[in-house]
Amino acid sequence: MILTTKQKKIVRTTIFMGILLISGFSAMNYGQLGIEKVPEQVNNLKSIPSSSAFWVNTSITIDATATTNDTHFGNWTWAENQDWCSGFGTPGQPYLIENMTFDVESVSNGLLIQNSVDIYFTINNCKFINALSSGYAGLLLDHTTNGTITNCNATSNYNGIFLDTASNYNNIINNNCSENSYTGIMLYKSIHNVIESNILDNNGDFGSLFQSGCNYNEISFNTVQDNYRSGIFFLRGSNNNTIFNNTLSQNAVLMVTTWGGITIREYSDYNEVYNNTSYQSNIYLDDADHNTIIDNTFESGTNGIHLFTDNYNNSIVNNTIINYDSGFRCSSSNLENKIIDNDFINCNNYGIFLNSAKNFTISDNVITGSDKGIRASGGDNNTLIRNQIFGSITSDIEIKESNNWNLTENTMETKGLLITDIYHNQIDTSNTVQGKPIYYYEDQNDLDLDGDIITNIGQLFVINSNNSVISNFNFNNLPVGLYIDGGNNLSISNNNVSNNNGNGMYLKDLSQSSITGNIAFNNLDYGMELLNIDQSSITGNTVSDNKYGIYNGNEEHEDWDEDYPDLSLLMGENIFSDNIVNNNERHGIEIRYSKLDTISNNILNNNTRDGLYVEYVYNSSISYNQVRDNLQDGIGVYQSPNATIFENEITNSSSYGIYLEVSNQTKIEKNQISLCYNGIHLYESHQSSIENNEITSNSHHGIYFEITNDTIISGNIISLNNETGITIDSESHNNIIFQNMFIQNTVHAEDNGFTNQWYFQNIGNYWDNYTGSDLDNDGIGDTNHSIFGSANNFDLYPIFDVAPVFIEIPFNVSFTVNQSQVLNWTVQDFIIWDATYTILLNGTEVETGTWESGTQFSFDLGSLNLEPGVYNVTIIVSDGLGYSTQESVLIVINPEIGDEPDPNKISGWLIFLFIVLGLSVVSITSMVVLKKTSPEKYDIVMETLKGFFGKFKNIGKSDKK
User: Fold this and answer.
1) For residues 888 and 886, what is the distance between their CA atoms, to the nearest angstrom?
2) Phi-psi bin for 693: left (phi > 0), alpha (psi -120 to 50), beta?
3) How many Å is the maximal CA-CA distance in the chain?
4) End-to-end CA distance of the chain
5) Residues 400-407: what's their mean pLDDT?
6) What is the pLDDT of residues 297-312, one digit of tens each?
7) 765: Cβ–Cβ under 8 A, 6 or more apart, which residues?
8) What is the pLDDT of residues 468-515, one digit of tens each?
């Protein structure tokens, strides 16, 4: 057809106007979408989307069920008409959205696809950022299936990629989902998805989170690192997922006690975790059952695999776990789990740690280089079989407070087995330590176990055995040298339990037993740990250079009342004697919650704390111990009333020689205490007595009272103390201090209390700086002695002279053979300390004893069956201060009345008269000669005799006071 000129003009005009109209509509539509269109021509066939597009502050939503469309909202038909989407939604030609950037910076998702079922789509090479509001995501699929998200970058969102409810059969592959504030990839109630080869890095909580019914998902070949709470997290019934070939690093580093690199929680069951590699990440199960963790490698962290609570029938098989604090850790209430054929290498604390685990099977594991290879506490009915444990530091296997264990064919290279409070076990000799079998006896009596006969033995355990003998064994380099729990009438003797990594000897629940002659040296814990020991003797043992020396601790009864103690609830009545307990890092001997114990004749030197420490020990006797060079107290007594502490030698304690705290009615007698900080220190310890001790050369105080009342201090020698001999603080009152000797102390006494009395019954104390006089020679100073301190107190009866000792004895005594033949005498002195007397008959000693001033003493001559005759009886007395005197008396034993005199014998009376007459003649003659030849000496002798007899007449008088 040939157009006319006019027709040609009309066609040209129409085409031109059409182009202008199309251009206007296009410009208007792009402006409403907010798309910065790149200058590329759109392919009219829609087979290839534009190479890139950029949304700012705009969210795109594709809802497959939408019936209306908007500029940024519509269904797939609407979407395919946009230049950023191509394809047809079929498996062969899925919808394709790629090269887009979604930067929303608002309360919305970047791209939301929802309600899309049986439509196939791919999102490729897109970027999703700044969907930061809680619950939103850079890319969100909701009720959407058959999507593939690949090569996308979802960062700086709340969730990077989120598959919400019923978003199934999707593939999320090769994406970078990092630095999102909550999760990199999150699934909620979505199944059969593939999460593969993604980077999940530095997300605020989770690398990926599978929450509430996320089942049959496959998570593989992902790089998951530096996520704060967990790398891969399954929560609330997410079952039958497979997690394999992932690389995890430094996830949950700050959440090590709760979650891990891979976390499976709350009814998430039948998941399989295999062939993953983890660095500073772990696997954490909590309330999860029937999961399998197999063929994984974990390196470095706190717990390699951690079963927290209520995990049932999980299998941990053939994993390699290196350089964790604990290779495997089970916290509590876990049942019937299996730990099989794993390698635990250099796990610092424990290879395997079980807490309250029941019905576990732990077999064929190799554990190398842990402090404790396997440690279990509080679980029953577990089986350990064919485990190999090498290079442990403290123990190879340690089991506490558990029952019904079965140990078979376990190989313990060096450190052996440690058990505490476990019963009803099957432990046979197929278990070895140091290549030697372990012997375990339970509920067997009358054992005779002799280390000289049983020589090929690695360890020995004796449980609930009576009337047995355990002797002559040598155990070293073990977690416990000798373990005995329960039994009566045991003899435990001459064993050497030294150089062990725990206790040398652990003895519990024994009664009427003998522990004697054992050596416990250089053990890292207790030399001897004794628990609930009753009516037993611990004698002649050497316990040195351990962390603790001898510890005897009875359990506190549940009905125990510290204010009103019922002593019938306590065990005790043990004897600790003749032990050498030196150089231990804690107390030498420590006793708690006991009664009527005797601690005597022990050597307790150079212990880092107290030589002897007792707490809640009632009515104990502490005597004749040598206690030197301890770095705290020599003898420390806490909450332990009615103790008797006597004749101990206590020297060079860095704190106190004897320390009492809340220990009333205690007697401290005849101890020698020197070179301590304070010799004796009482704190809230009332109604006690401190008598006849020698307290000298202490760096501060000889005796110090702190809040202590109604106590007697008497007969002590208190000398050369650098600050004070005695100090009484302002809260101590009603104490009585008398007959003590204060010699060369910097300050003899300081009294800051009230109603303390420095004398008793008209006798005070001896003060070497007393400046008064004793004009009437009664031994009491004529003036008071003032006591330094705010109390402004005085000794009203200071002792003037400590030297004289007076003996009152009859001048002659006559008995007949058939009469009572008792000799009586009285000794008087003001200060006595370790006072003794000796009786000689014709120069031969017949009796010795001790005496107290003013007390009448008697000696029955009839016990000697003396023949009639005249005898010389000499009494020698010493006050223990270096002063002594003696008196002699002639004793005449007459024949029984009616006896015929022997003509060949001279009458006893006649002999007596001859002797008296002879002595009188000699004495008178001597005095006459002395008066004529040396009148001055005669006057001195007469004055001495007058003074001597005057002291008998005036002793104790105090009329001048």
Assistant:
1) 7
2) beta
3) 201
4) 163
5) 94
6) 999 988 999 999 999 9
7) 737, 738, 739, 740, 741, 742, 758, 759, 785, 795, 798, 799
8) 999 999 999 999 999 999 999 999 999 999 999 899 999 999 999 999
